[in-house]
Amino acid sequence: MRLLTDNPVTEPADDAFHFGPYVSMLHAAVERAEPLPLTVGVFGSWGTGKSSLLRLWEHRLKEKKVPTIWFNPWKYDRKVEVWAALLHTILAEMETKQGLREKALRLAKAATWLSVRAGLGTAASLATGGVVKSGDVDTMLTELAEGDAEQYRQINRFENDFRDAVEEFVGTDGRLVVFVDDLDRCTPESAMTVLESLKLFLGESRCVFVLALDLDVLAAVATNKFGDAFKDAPAEVVSGLAYLDKIVQLPFFLPDVSFETLRSAFASYVVQREDDDDFWELLRRGLGANPRRLKRFVNVFNMALGIAAAQAGSAQDRAFRLQLAALLVIRSRHRDFFHLLAADPTSWETLVTFFRRRQDTPEKREQHRLALPTELDPFADDRTLEALLAWRGGPVGVPSVETVRSMITTVRTTTGPDRLSAADL
C-alpha cells in the first residue's frame, strides 16, 4: 500500500494539478511591477492546493535568481508576536549578505522595542530568534521607563531603515518576494496580526508579499476585528471582501482542480480497483473535488480494506468495497447519520427505501415523509446523502445489518473513536 502525503508540490515535473499556467500568469504580473511594495493574495478553500501553487512559484523565482523568503505564521501562533517572527525571518535572510548583518541587528533591536511596547516583554527574545537576548530586553524595559529618546527615534526610523536594508539586499531594481502560507491554520487574532503587520513593512520597501488563505478565514478575521460594526453592513463587507481591498492589490482566486484531474493523480494509489468508474463517481458525489480530502480518503480506505480482509480472512468483493467507501464518506461528511447507523444498522435500508420511493413517486412525497421514523427525519432533505446512497443506477446497494455492523467495526478500528474529530478523515 502506497500512502498519499499532504506535502505540497515543489517541482514542475510533479505538477499533477496543472498549476503551471497560473504560476506563469502571476509571475508575469509581478515580475516587473512598479512601484513596489505589492501584496498578492492567493485565495482558495481548505485543501485546494494553495501551498503547492506557492511552492511552484517559489521554484520559478529561484530559477530567475529572485530572492525569496518563506514564512509559516502558524508555527508561532499564540507563542510569540507573529509580526516580530515574520520580521526576524526576513532579517535572518538579510544577515547572510556581507555588510548587512549590523543593519539587520539594529532592525531586530527596533523590532524588540516594538514588542516591548506592545506588552510582549521577554518573549521578544524568542520573537527575534535570539538575535536580541533576554538581558537586552530587560535593559530595554528599563530604558523605556526612563524615556530614552534615541531608542524612540530608532523606532520612528524603522520604516526607512527597513526600506534601505531591503534595497541593499536585492538591488535598486530587484525585489524580495515573501511567501506567507498557512494563514488558514492560525487563529483569527494571529491572522489579523500578520495582515496588519504588513503596514509596518510596506512603506516604500521593494517587497512583494504573497499571502495564501481562505476567504472565509479573512471574513472571520474581519468580523473578529470589527465585531458589532458589521451588524448592518453589506454582504460584501461581512464576507471580508472590503477588508481584502485594503490589504491586497492583486487578488487571485485559485480555480478548483477538476475531479477528473484528481482521479488521474490519485488512481494508482487505490488498492486493486483503481479504474472502477462507480467507485470514483461515489467519491465525486460524496467528497467533491478537494485534493486534501481525497488524499486522506484514499489512505484511510486502503487501510480499512486491509483490516477488513484480515478480519474476514480473505479479500472482500466489489459490493463490500463500494459500501465501505460509502460508509467512510458518511463518517466524514455525515457524522450524525453515522452515529445513528452505529446504534441502529437498519437505518441505512430504511433511509434508502424512503429516498427511492420519493424519487419514484414524487406526488406522494408527504406520505413517504410521514412514514419515515422520527430519528431519520433530520436526514430526509439531505440531498448530498441521497445522491450518495440512492442515485439511480448506482452500484452501492443496501448492505445487510451484519455487514453494516462489521464495516462500522472496521471503520472504528481504522479511524479511531467517534468522539475524535474526523477532520475530513
Automatic annotation (TrEMBL):
Residues 23-303 form the KAP NTPase domain. It comes from the Bacteria. InterPro entries: KAP_P-loop (IPR011646), NTPase_KAP_P-loop (IPR052754), P-loop_NTPase (IPR027417). This is AAA family ATPase.
